[in-house]
Structure formats: C-alpha cells, structure tokens
C-alpha cells in the first residue's frame, strides 16, 4: 500500500516540479544554471517522498570552479532524484532526443540548455558533440554524462562509451567521476525508511595535453576508479546494516 501511495505522490510531484521548472526555463531560457535549479526541484521533495536517505561527499565536484566533464553511473530513473542532489552550478547534460516528448519535463530539459542527442542520425549526433566541445571550451559550462549510455538496473557498472572522454580530451578539460552506491536492489519502497544511498565524487582527472591515442587508457582508468569507489560504498552500507 505504501508503495502505491508513494508512486502516486511521486507522479504528482513530477508534474508539479516540471511545471515550475518550465516557468523557470521560460523566464530565463537556456541559462546554464537552470539544470541545477530544476534538479533540486525534483530531488529534494522526491527523496522525501521515496523515503531515501542520501549522504553525499562531493567536495571535489561542488568546489570545482571551471568547466569539466562529469561522469556518473546510471542505475535507474530514480537517478533524477538521487543524483539531482549534487548537480553543480553551470552544468548541462546530454540526453536522448526522445526526452523532449515527456510532458513538461522534456520542454524544461530543452529550455535548461541541455543537449538532446539523436542517436539514430550519426551526422546530427556528431554536430551535437561538437557543440558540447564548444560549450566546454568557451562558455565555462560543465557537461554531465552517463558514460554507460543506458541504465544498469543495479547489475554493476557497464562498459563505457567513448563520447564523454572524447569531449574532455578535445576541450582539454578535466573529468570528475561521481559515484552512487548500488541502491536499486536495496530499496524497499514498501517501508517508511526505504534505504540509504552514498554518493562520492572523485578527484578531477586531467586531460590537458592528451591525444586521442590515450583514450582507451583514460576510459579504463576512470572506470577502474569508479568500480573501486562503488564497491567500497556498497561494503560500507553492508557493514552498517550488519551492525
């Protein structure tokens, strides 16, 4: 019963937050800080409705003052609420073109300056990637990317696609990994306190001076660091539960 009530309340919240976010987008269209404000609109009430307790250690992300590429593990649609807690100022993201058809959310996503990628059209996808490189270099705006390219549904970190890392090298900006503990299979949405989630950002990884020949090593290094961090957080939560 609690699960059903939560889903109904979350659906109402999703629509209301979308409407308010759309007003922000219309008031100041394509402002790069719209994404942070809208992320908080969804995240803070959403986490309360879900009964999730999130503890974030994200100093390396939130105190970084220049453009960067942010990479994070992508577990489920609940990431909107979980990771929305730590979206820094002047940050936009890359999403599928199909997002624009979601009522309210799709329109505010576009007005927030996020990049809609048409994966079915390689030419348009390449043009969009060039636009993000220009954004990183000249607009002091960071890009948030889920390098797995799809939700992993709590089954572990999937192989990374190249796009985020190519952007970082092309623009010469650092990469900041953001890791969330595996929460999807731990959530108990029929309980009042449905679970705990840990979020940690890792130190920035420099790409200045790198060539595309170093791309495989960069991807491997970032993924290895994230795997280690996620595993450590999962072990910490398991130990806390046992205690």
Can you describe this structure?
The chain has 243 residues and is α/β, with parallel strands linked by helices. It has one domain (2-242): Glycerol-3-phosphate (1)-acyltransferase (3-Layer(aba) Sandwich), CATH 3.40.1130. Helices cover 46% and strands 15% of the residues. The chain has eight helices and seven strands, in the order H-H-E-H-E-H-E-H-E-H-E-H-E-E-H. The protein has helices spanning 2-27, 34-50, 59-62, 79-82, 105-111, 122-138, 163-171, 215-242, and strands at residues 52-57, 69-72, 91-96, 115-117, 142-145, 175-180, 195-201. It has a seven-stranded mixed sheet with strand order 1-7-6-2-5-3-4, sandwiched between helices. It is globular, with a radius of gyration of 18 Å. The two termini are 29 Å apart. The mean pLDDT is 88. This is 1-acyl-sn-glycerol-3-phosphate acyltransferase.
Task: Provide the fold topology.
Blueprint lengths: L1 H26 L6 H17 L1 E6 L1 H4 L6 E4 L6 H4 L8 E6 L8 H7 L3 E3 L4 H17 L3 E4 L17 H9 L3 E6 L14 E7 L13 H28 L1
Parallel strand pairs: 1-7, 2-5, 2-6, 3-4, 3-5
Antiparallel strand pairs: 6-7
Helix pairs in contact: 1-2, 1-5, 6-7
InterPro entries: AGP_acyltrans (IPR004552), Plipid/glycerol_acylTrfase (IPR002123)
Pfam families: Acyltransferase
Keywords: Acyltransferase, Lipid biosynthesis, Lipid metabolism, Membrane, Phospholipid biosynthesis, Phospholipid metabolism, Transferase, Transmembrane, Transmembrane helix
